Amino acid sequence: MEAAPMEVAFLNNDPLDSVVIDALSGDTLYTISTSPKLAFGKRTTTICDAEGRAIAQYKRRWVQDQVELNGVAKNVSSWLPRDGAFSSLRGFLAPNGRTYVWKRLWGQSRFQLIDRQTEQVVAQSEGASLTRGMGIEFVAEVAPILDTLVLSFVICEDDRREQETLLAPTAVSGE
């Protein structure tokens, strides 16, 4: 990323339940909350702006996950499709008319957002550590699509964590 980066930080390591702030000013940008898990995996994550208005929802459903952004509802599989069945790439068409793709860095819990027209990295996530919370660093050019960027990242990060949970070895009792 060449231009002076901007950054948002998640105050909680859970992307589904966190406050997202401007890392420089400390101003609250979003509040993300998720309903308790219901039968058949139904949960709804709501993203509210700094004024408390719901701007996006991510609805996990048994058959088809859905997303609603600024009043427009779509299936996640069409709004943020994978490049292939086993691909870690997930792309979206942003309100600015450009196509972006989140790419998970191999063997890491980090993502890069790539502008498909220029193939430039325009954002990258940082996982939480002992000294720092989870965050997304991005170039100023994508600031106008920050709502879309945050929603798409939350979905990708939730998916990554779910996959890691499914692939993690389970403890076996020696009894």
UniProtKB/TrEMBL annotation:
Residues 13-162 form the DUF6593 domain. InterPro entries: DUF6593. It holds the Pfam family DUF6593. This is DUF6593 domain-containing protein. It comes from Trametes pubescens.
